[in-house]
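Technical annex, item 7. During the second reporting period the consortium partners agreed on a shared format for inverse folding records so that results from different sites could be compared directly. Each record opens with the tokenized structure and is followed by the designed sequence. A conforming record, contributed by the partner at site C, is shown below for reference.
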């Protein structure tokens, strides 16, 4: 291993989001000569990875064009669960091992789902902002209410996709006293207690809260659009912590503006960062966070730890979490 460490060059192309300075790369550095870049522009990829045996990337794209110019590269570690930033077909053709980091952010993403949901039904941010401006001090009574306030107990949560995050969201929803429906490839008999299997149309029609936890595929792209939004209750809340393109954002904005959807809570948009004139940015009932559901310190620590273990396993000729 010592000789191998001297010879292997590891490059992290975009390390800042995973580790803006509050965590350590020390364990990864123990595996080889390590270079960490905070960010890498597309035109810098080939130069920075040119001498690398192993490259770690979060959002920097490694497509066929880049891989053809990296003859030394033997390993790509995606520092995320989704690995669409890598042309895996081109990588496999060149004998490059590709790995990802599954399920590191389950608790963090589920937590963000309910941070959004609780804000949407309780308007905590609305009241906190008002009261920084003295609104409560001016109230004639001991309290004031200028928004609808809604209990989750007894409401129906619809979940699209019942992987690790979807299951955790279901568990939390049940703790709030919600009924849970799920669209999933799993059989009805294999579902955890209290979760009923349903088709998408049933979810759309019955859900008071609809939350998306499915992968982005040709079939799921823009699954929420004008046609499917028309089936939802006007009082429904739509939550997307999965992928921006699961929804047609212009259609969602129109539904919000016309009162056909109560709220849209999202941690993702189709283009990140969004443009200044993004259709949802100025919608009063759209609540957007900047793709941070995955980014608790604990989740980022798990991410770096697993990414390091993936490299270690590759060096030991027993790769894990391959895709």
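Designed sequence (site C submission):
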């Amino acid at each position: 291993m010592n000789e191998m460490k001297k010879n292997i060059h590891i490059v992290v192309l975009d390390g800042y989001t995973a580790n803006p300075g509050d965590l350590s790369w020390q364990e990864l550095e123990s595996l080889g000569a390590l270079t960490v870049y905070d960010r890498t522009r597309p035109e810098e990829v080939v130069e920075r990875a040119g001498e690398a045996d192993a490259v770690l990337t979060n959002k920097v794209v490694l497509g066929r064009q880049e891989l053809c110019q990296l003859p030394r590269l033997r390993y790509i570690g995606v520092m995320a669960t989704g690995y669409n930033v890598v042309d895996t077909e081109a990588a496999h053709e060149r004998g490059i091992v590709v790995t990802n980091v599954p399920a590191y952010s389950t608790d963090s993403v589920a937590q963000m789902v309910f941070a959004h949901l609780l804000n949407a039904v309780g308007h905590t941010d609305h009241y906190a902002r008002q009261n920084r401006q003295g609104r409560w001090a001016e109230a004639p009574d001991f309290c004031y209410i200028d928004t609808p306030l809604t209990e989750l107990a007894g409401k129906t949560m619809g979940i699209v996709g019942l992987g690790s995050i979807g299951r955790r969201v279901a568990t939390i929803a049940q703790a709030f006293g919600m009924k849970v429906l799920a669209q999933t490839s799993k059989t009805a008999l294999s579902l955890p207690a209290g979760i009923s299997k349903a088709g998408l149309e049933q979810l759309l029609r019955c859900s008071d809260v609809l939350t998306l936890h499915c992968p982005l595929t040709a079939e799921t792209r823009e699954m929420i659009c004008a046609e499917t939004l028309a089936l939802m209750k006007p009082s429904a809340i739509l939550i997307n912590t999965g992928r921006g393109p699961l929804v047609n954002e212009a259609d969602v904005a129109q539904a919000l503006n016309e009162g056909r959807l109560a709220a849209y809570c999202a941690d993702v948009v189709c283009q990140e960062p969004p443009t200044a004139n993004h259709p949802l940015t100025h919608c009063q009932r759209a609540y957007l966070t900047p793709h941070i559901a995955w980014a608790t310190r604990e989740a980022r620590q798990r991410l770096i730890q697993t990414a390091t273990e993936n490299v270690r396993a590759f060096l030991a000729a027993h790769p894990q979490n391959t895709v």
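The chain has a mean pLDDT of 96. The longest strand covers residues 156-160. All partners now use this format for quarterly exchanges.
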